[in-house]
Design a protein that fits this description.
The protein has about 300 residues and is α+β, with helices and mostly antiparallel strands. The chain is globular, with a radius of gyration of 20 Å. The protein contains 8 helices and 9 strands. α1 packs parallel to α5 and α3 (about 160-180) packs antiparallel against α5. β7 (about 200) and β8 form a beta hairpin. The strands form 2 sheets. The chain has a 7-stranded antiparallel β-sheet. The chain has a two-stranded antiparallel sheet with strand order 7-8.
């Protein structure tokens, strides 16, 4: 029977998953940080004379207009001898979307209240031969609920045999994760990633792609949460393996110069097109955490 307009709207089933989702994103953060610090310890190639990096964690609280609790998060940033700059941030925030922003968010048109929890990672590497990487997953609740996220790889040169092999490894991990839930997920979410991480003003992709999904609700929130966890585990499996494969190879100053120019594409995408950047800035997020994705050194020719 259709619901009467006067009857309260039932909350989405994602409400019951709030504690588990927040705990998962924080657990995944800890596992990723541990894996990356182990990589720093294992480096015996270029820059091995530099002390291994360690994560520095900084908590923050989301400001609200009336001083009420709006949640917050923690930035975990490491600068080391393998990772020139890597950030693994988690946040759990709530409040109301601004009038100009709520029309863009499903389910917020009639009720601007929201709850969101997630993890966001960007790794920029010392070696131009090791690809940069981005990963995030999140759960967002308005009057509706859904999961979103994904990961993508950015080799500095897309057409070398090494870059092709790394991309194939990265995609294979996501393919396996997707196929455990629905064989249609990988082709759909790969194509979505290819469309999303594209620089229209340059007519070129940002990197070698991966998967991307948003507003994902199949009708079974528990199953969608399980899929989201598997996406995180796929990244945890694949990216550290790729880093270890390449991190001890020697590079030249010409390789480094090319890397700095290619990083400019990363900056252009994140400041012009990235919806996550916009969401964070529009919801009173921590500016330093939001802009953590930017590389520490970059050049435009």
């Amino acid at each position: 029977m259709p619901q009467s307009p006067d009857e309260p709207v039932a909350p989405p089933p994602h409400h019951a998953l709030k504690p588990a989702a927040q705990a998962w994103f924080e657990t995944l953060r800890d596992r990723l940080c541990a894996a990356f610090e182990a990589i720093e310890d294992a480096q015996d190639g270029p820059l091995s004379n530099v002390p291994p990096g360690r994560f520095d964690r900084t908590a923050w609280q989301r400001p609200t207009p009336d001083g009420s609790d709006g949640g917050g998060g923690a930035m975990s940033v490491m600068r080391g001898r393998v990772f020139e700059k890597v950030g693994v941030n988690v946040s759990t925030v709530w409040g109301e979307f601004s009038p100009e922003f709520r029309a863009q968010i499903p389910g917020a048109e009639s009720d601007p209240r929201f709850w969101a929890s997630g993890i966001s990672l960007v790794a920029h590497m010392q070696s131009p031969l090791v690809p940069a990487a981005h990963f995030n997953t999140r759960m967002l609740i308005t009057t509706r609920g859904w999961f979103g996220g994904g990961g993508d790889l950015t080799p500095m040169r897309l057409d070398t045999p090494e870059a092709v092999a790394d991309a194939a490894d990265f995609h294979a991990a996501f393919l396996a994760a997707c196929d455990r839930h629905d064989p249609g997920y990988y082709p759909e979410f790969k194509a979505w990633c290819d469309r999303y991480f594209f620089l229209p003003h340059r007519g070129e992709p940002r990197g070698a792609g991966g998967i991307f999904f948003d507003h994902h609700f199949t009708g079974d929130a528990e199953a969608d949460f399980a899929f989201t966890r598997d996406v995180g585990l796929a990244f945890l499996e694949a990216f550290p393996r790729i880093v270890r494969r390449r991190m001890n190879e020697s590079w030249t100053q010409a390789d480094r110069e090319h890397q700095l120019v290619r990083r400019g594409r990363y900056v252009e995408f994140n400041l012009i097109h990235d919806r996550g950047t916009l969401f964070g800035l529009k919801t009173g997020g921590n500016v330093e955490a939001i802009l953590m994705s930017l590389p520490p050194a970059v050049k435009w020719p």
